[in-house]
User: What shape does this take?
Amino acid sequence: MTAYAIAHLKTPSMHPDVLEYMERVQATMDPFQGRFLVHGPPVDVREGQWPGTVVVIEFPDMDRVVRWYESAAYQAILPLRTGHIDGVAVLVEGVSPGHSAAGLAAELRAAAL
Assistant: This one.
């Protein structure tokens, strides 16, 4: 099942280290078939507070996103970004084909009884 690396970059900056990170990150993703879906655009905040921007990277499955994040190649460049940008990163699995919010609500309701 498709999985994602999602980063909320609260204080994006164009420090030289961040630019180097950006120049090198794709090479760390390629062996794991990672691809950018969202890469730091301005966000249109409709609810709550959202300082900064967001990055979403897609991988074929949870195993590959975890292996990418934990890889020596990615860990070597990670401080280039984290040393200059405050943020949060999560790895998360997507939903299966045919997923519905109503179906999930029914499962949760049944489990609560």
The mean pLDDT is 96. Strands lie at 3-9, 35-39, 53-59, 87-93. Helices lie at 16-29, 62-70, 72-82, 101-112.
